[in-house]
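#lab-general

N.A. 3:47 PM
ok so I finally got the sequence cleaned up, no stray characters, all 420 residues accounted for. can someone with queue access submit it? mine expired

B.Y. 3:52 PM
send it over

N.A. 3:53 PM
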Amino acid sequence: MNNYFVEIADGHSSPLPAGYPSVWLGCRLHEPTCSWLNEEVVPYSSSAGTWATAARSVVTWLEYCAAREVDWREAHRINLLAYRDAYLFGISPKTGRPFKKSTVRTRMTFIVSFLNFVSKKWAIDRSDQVNIYSPKEASNLFDDGEVSQPYSERFLKSQSKDLLKIIPKASQDDTVRIMRKEDLKKLIDWLGPRPSELGNNTDLGNKDRDFVLFALGWAVGLRANEMLNLKVNPFEVIVVGEDQLSAYYKIQVHGKGNKIRQVDIPGWLIKDIQFYIQGSRKEALCARGRSFREAKLLLNGRSARRFVGLPITKSGLDLIMKRACEACGFIEEKVQEKSLSGVSRKRTAPKFSLHTLRHTYAVMTYKTMSISGFTEIEAWKYVQLQLGHESPKTTIDFYLRHVTIWSSSQTSSSLKKVFE
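B.Y. 4:20 PM
back already:
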């Protein structure tokens, strides 16, 4: 049986930087996996933990194929499905409990990325197989023997979509957490002055960017991925007068399934975004070079250890939220079981996620509109359109029982008045 293993560089005995992963087959580097890690994983993530997870995910696939005497280079789609189901219904040897669906999803995402990378890089594929290498590249790299001729780029794209269907969908978390007025106010106070109040002062690092991304959650209701996909151009052309700060402006966002919708963004936030564009965002771009351009709105700031001036990632957003929770004292203790014997340990975790801001926006907006004289149907319909739900029923079922958190007129409107 093939002996695959992951080696993590310690930064001393290896020329690779600390945390850099490499995959070995016996005493030889496994070139396809290492190429994928070098080109598709490490350049797009600053987390050594993510690198290791990616490497180990692919190794579990290689080991699975080897155990079933299947050449992974000629694996069929049914082999991927069998691998997925084996983990979805399997027991973790570490915890003695079923594997989490999120764990299987993460592994499958990396494995599919690896297979698509190898297919495209060496132009290989068949309709009934995962990968078959082109003769030239295969003979140079893997000594595969007889293989098929390359397929068109259009075919490879269609297969990429087909492989994505194999990944288990993320489970719906019905837990709705709403920040109370005092919690949200504490978070905003921690962020410091608004970007428009800072003016040209950028000595506060990325506080203007962080203010903007949090406001896009609690004042607009955007998902994390919707924030990440925002472009800078639409915000640059809007002119907001001092008497229009409480007005709303339409901005196009790409929601789930790449569905496009129009959302309302208040004028005061447009103004703050424009100050961010001319503040730390501009400085981050200058750090990349005078001619450097980037269409995405939210970028890594100059204080980032890596990828300064490049678009921030989902893990980057989560890290910012984690730091904010730690600074504001929004921490809770969780008990985690570790084995069949029932041994457990306590750990601390952030009380709120970035998605909490979206939940808070939904309830706060509904209450504000109700107090302003809108009917329940009108209020829920507006919230539904802002959030991008398919029907108001989804919105009502999800948030109705949490409305009492923002039950008083003073509570639901006080934060809004701060910015008018």
